[in-house]
């Protein structure tokens, strides 16, 4: 299975998660702001944050503007200070592009001001690695 990690961040949390998972799992991580090449990929792990209760609008815009994607499967990892929100807008944009999105979404504890201070941390990275391994096994 050829997998890649795609992330976009405003605060650095999604990048931190992406880089750590890439290192642990031997998967390349790409910042969506750099218009990465996702060719020759079976599965894309999309990592993004929640801002004001919604997905990063720049990440949604990027997904909607991609050239016809060659990958057909994706999974979502979300950084959210409240741990109550999912990347609904990102999921919808992927589905609109004909991409099958893994039903389960991992939401890790992000931080905002002092709420969730110290996250993402090692336990979040462990959960992320376990999640990606599960997705890869089931894909």
Short key terms for the protein model shown above:
single chain, 139 residues, alpha/beta, Rossmann fold, seven-stranded mixed beta sheet, 4 helices, globular
The number of helical elements comes to 4
The CATH class turns out to be Alpha Beta
The CATH architecture term is 3-Layer(aba) Sandwich
The dominant shape is globular
Gyration radius over CA? 14 Å
Structural class: alpha/beta
Number of spatially distinct domains: 1
Q: Strand fraction band?
A: 15-25%
Low-confidence stretches: none
CATH superfamily: Flavodoxin domain
Write the H/E string, N to C.
EHEEEHEHEEH
CATH fold descriptor: Rossmann fold
Helix content: 25-40%
Head-to-tail CA distance between termini: 8 Å
Describe this structure in words.
The protein is an alpha/beta fold. It has a single domain (3-138), classed as Rossmann fold. It has helices at residues 13-25, 57-65, 88-96, 122-138, and strands at 3-7, 28-31, 43-51, 54-55, 73-80, 100-101, 106-109. Strands 1, 2, 3, 4, 5, 6 and 7 form a seven-stranded mixed beta sheet that branches. α2 runs parallel beside α3 (88-96). The chain is globular and about 40 Å long. The model has no long low-confidence stretch (mean pLDDT 90).
In short, what is this structure?
With 139 residues, the protein is an alpha/beta fold. It has helices at residues 13-25, 57-65, 88-96, 122-138; strands at 3-7, 28-31, 43-51, 54-55, 73-80, 100-101, 106-109. Strands 1, 2, 3, 4, 5, 6 and 7 form a 7-stranded mixed sheet that branches.
